[in-house]
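INFO batch 0412 | record 1 of 1 | parsing
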Amino acid sequence: MMNQRFQRGATLIVVLIILLFMTIIGTLAIRQSLVSLNIATNGQAQQLMFESSDAALFKIEDPTQVENQLAANGMFAYFDSADHAQDQLVFCYKANNTNFFNLQNASVISSDGTITKNGVAGYCQSTWFSTGRSAILTQVYLTQVASNSKPLANFTLGTSAGQSTNISNTTKSISVTVISVLPSFSSASSSDIEACFKKNKDEVGTCFSDLNIPYNIQRADYTVGAIPTLKTS
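INFO prediction complete | emitting tokens
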């Protein structure tokens, strides 16, 4: 009788040990699955943000848009004025907008950090998604690259300083910075997100990083001028 009880007790211990091992193995498998899922999700997030930033750059390079942006109210023409040479021209990219750029819907960050020189309508709000997926927010910054050229070196051949046209008769170097963020991956508030979008192009990435919001930044430099084309540098 005692022997039977001992055997049953030993069997129960073995079963418990097996169950313990199965629990440990199951827990490790679940953890591994969660890690793999997290890696896949992060990879997909980076891809979505990259595509949104890329789409904004492609829009800037669109040959049908360039002439409009070189005209008086265009994004490139903004830097024709010496008063704007140190500014950062900012606008929120929304793929569904038929009008890619409108100066009335753009903002300016001055060299002294002032963000209201041209109002605040250009800074992305937390619900201004760049695509129909309602996931990505994308903001564009334009700055003029300082030139060390000799006087009149940037004038296009066949034009003069007094020539009056709708398109600037000088060439200039413009740097474009595009940042895309995925706010749903963070618990940051709308006000925190919108405050980051009011940072300049050199600080905006750090701001979103501090909020643990994934982001993607792309930069491109262009030479623009009287001939309605862009040259990438």
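INFO post-check: The chain has four helices and six strands.
INFO record closed
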